[in-house]
C-alpha cells in the first residue's frame, strides 16, 4: 500500500499524503456535511467490525484509522491506513453487503457518517460527489492489484514500503536534509501486519537499515529516518 513518499514539510502530521486517495473536493464538502452525522472516535476505538451490517459510509475529517482483517492463523493483517479526506466503508454504497474489514482509530479521529439512502439522493444532484466515490473505488482496486504483485517482492522491499507508508502518515520533518522523525506508532508488529511478513523479518530488515544509517532508533517506537534513502530501498534500489 502506497510507496510514494512526500516529505511532510507542507502537511500536518496525520494528513493523508497526496497521490494516495485524493481529499474530497472543497466544493463537495459542504454538501456532504449537510447530510452527515458527526462521529468522534478515541484512539483504539473500533468504528465497525468485519461482518457488521453496513448502512452507509464515513468521510474522515481528522485522524488516522486502520483497516484490518485476521489471517486463518489468527494474526492481524493491516489492509490499509486511512487519513483525512479518505472514505471508509464505500463498498456499502454498491452491494449492501457486510463490512469487509474491521476499522479502528489509531489516533483521535473525527468522521462524518452518511447513510446509504442519503448518499444515493446526493448522487442524483451532485455529480462531483459520485465521481469522487468512483475515483476512490478505482484507486482501491489498483492498490489491491499492486499489493498482489508486491507479495512476490523481496521481504526487504515489502517492509521498507510499509515503513514509507507509516512515515507518510506519522512523520514530522526535522531538517532540510530530508530526515523525518516518527515518534509513535512504529511498532514492529504493526509494520509486519502492514507488510504481510513475520515480526522476525521486520526485526532483521530494521537492523539492516540501522546499520546502513537509514534509520536511527530514538526510543522504543520512535525513529529518525533518512526519507530519501528509505524511498530508494522501497523501490528496490541500492
Indicate the CATH architecture of the largest domain: Sandwich
Query: What does the average pLDDT come to?
Result: 76
Helical stretch count? 8
CATH homologous superfamily identity of the largest domain: Jelly Rolls
Low-confidence stretches: 1-28
Strand order of the largest sheet: 1-8-3-6
Secondary-structure element order, as H and E? HEEEEEEHEEHHHEEHHEEH
Strand count, sense and barrel status of the largest sheet are:
4 strands, antiparallel
Number of strands: 12
CATH class term of the largest domain: Mainly Beta
Give an overview in words.
The protein starts with 28 loop residues before the first helix and ends with a helix. It has 238 residues and is of the alpha+beta class. It has two domains: 8-150, Jelly Rolls; 155-234, Orthogonal Bundle (Arc Repressor Mutant, subunit A), CATH 1.10.10.10. A hairpin with a 5-residue loop joins strand 9 (172-173) and strand 10 (179-182). The strands form three sheets. It has a four-stranded antiparallel β-sheet with strand order 1-8-3-6. Strands 2-7-4-5 form a four-stranded antiparallel β-sheet. It has eight helices and twelve strands.
Amino acid at each position: 500500500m502506497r510507496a510514494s513518499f512526500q516529505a511532510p514539510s507542507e502537511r500536518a502530521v496525520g494528513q493523508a499524503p497526496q497521490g494516495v486517495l485524493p481529499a474530497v473536493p472543497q466544493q463537495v464538502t459542504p454538501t456532504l456535511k449537510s447530510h452527515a452525522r458527526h462521529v468522534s472516535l478515541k484512539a483504539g476505538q473500533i468504528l465497525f467490525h468485519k461482518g457488521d451490517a453496513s448502512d452507509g459510509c464515513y468521510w474522515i475529517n481528522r485522524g488516522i484509522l486502520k483497516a484490518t482483517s485476521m489471517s486463518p492463523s489468527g494474526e492481524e493483517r493491516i489492509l490499509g491506513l486511512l487519513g483525512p479526506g479518505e472514505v471508509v466503508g464505500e463498498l456499502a454504497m454498491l452491494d449492501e453487503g457486510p463490512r469487509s474489514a474491521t476499522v479502528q482509530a489509531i489516533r483521535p479521529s473525527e468522521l462524518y457518517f452518511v447513510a446509504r439512502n442519503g448518499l444515493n439522493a446526493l448522487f442524483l444532484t451532485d455529480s462531483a460527489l459520485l465521481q469522487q466515490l468512483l475515483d476512490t473505488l478505482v484507486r482501491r482496486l489498483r492498490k489491491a492489484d499492486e499489493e498482489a504483485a508486491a507479495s512476490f517482492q523481496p521481504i526487504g522491499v515489502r517492509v521498507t514500503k510499509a515503513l514509507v507508508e507509516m512515515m507518510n502518515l506519522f512523520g514530522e520533518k526535522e531538517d532540510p536534509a530530508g530526515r523525518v522523525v516518527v515518534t509513535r506508532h512504529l511498532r514492529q508488529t504493526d509494520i509486519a501486519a502492514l507488510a504481510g511478513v513475520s515480526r522476525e523479518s521486520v526485526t532483521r530488515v530494521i537492523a539492516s537499515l540501522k546499520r546502513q544509517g537509514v534509520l536511527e532508533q530514538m526510543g522504543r517506537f520512535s525513529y529518525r529516518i533518512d526519507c530519501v534513502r528509505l524511498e530508494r530501498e522501497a523501490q528496490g534500489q541500492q
